[in-house]
Design a protein that fits this description.
Largest sheet: 4 strands, mixed
Structural class: alpha+beta
CATH superfamily: Imidazole glycerol phosphate dehydratase, domain 1
Order of helices and strands: EEEHEHEEEEEHEH
EC number: 4.2.1.19
Subcellular location: Cytoplasm
GO molecular function, one term: imidazoleglycerol-phosphate dehydratase activity
Mean pLDDT: 95
Strand order of the largest sheet: 1-2-4-3
Catalytic activity: D-erythro-1-(imidazol-4-yl)glycerol 3-phosphate = 3-(imidazol-4-yl)-2-oxopropyl phosphate + H2O
Pathway: Amino-acid biosynthesis; L-histidine biosynthesis; L-histidine from 5-phospho-alpha-D-ribose 1-diphosphate: step 6/9
Distance between the termini: 22 Å
């Protein structure tokens, strides 16, 4: 089974994470309710098992908790994929949520990059700063070694926009990590 377990402790966060690419238990506790909801959506719509416990310096704000979780989830994704052989490599998805529509495309290439195109009218959803959506996606993409393009096509409600984006990224990742024979590269390696 394609899994990774990572523990990372800094002066700002203490994170324990287990990722199972082929499904498993979902249990999320970051101390930020909306972020828990987004990670739960990511795991559910990606078909991933994901257990995350985070103790962060939330007395400062949500920045370190969200970004560091993206770092650890990205590292776990990279570790679980190993040499990236036997995967479809590419994935994309459009996901609607009420008035909002989000798009994501991913290349599990070993070359990290992020294109993020979204503007949120609201600055917060619960205790989650909406600007942290981009920080999470960047940390995830760069630490997973993937190219990720994601954008909000339209929408007004930040909750709907961000949730649609997390689901679109999850579905694109699910497609990209789905089984396929060989290494999908003219070079013969993904790095």
């Amino acid at each position: 089974m394609r899994t990774a377990q990572i523990k990372r402790t800094t002066k700002e966060t203490d994170i324990a994470l287990i990722l199972q690419l082929d499904g498993g238990e979902i249990k999320i506790d970051t101390g930020i309710g909306f972020f828990d909801h987004m990670l739960n959506s990511f795991a559910t719509h990606g078909g991933f098992g994901l257990q995350v416990t985070v103790k962060g310096d939330l007395h400062v704000d949500c920045h370190h908790t969200v970004e560091d979780t993206g770092i650890v989830l990205g590292k776990a994704m990279g570790e679980a994929l190993g040499d990236k052989s036997g995967i479809a490599r590419f994935g994309s998805s459009f996901v609607p949520m009420d008035e909002a529509l989000a798009f994501a495309a991913v290349d599990v290439s070993g070359r990290p990059f992020l294109v993020f195109d979204a503007a949120f009218q609201e600055q917060q959803v619960g205790q989650f700063d909406t600007c942290m959506t981009e920080e999470f996606m960047r940390a995830f993409a760069f630490n997973a070694g993937i190219t990720l393009h994601t954008r909000i096509e339209y929408g007004k409600n930040a909750h709907h926009q961000i949730e649609a984006m997390f689901k679109a990224v999850a579905r694109a990742m699910r497609e990209a990590v789905s089984p396929r024979d060989g290494i999908l590269s003219t070079k013969g390696v993904l790095a």
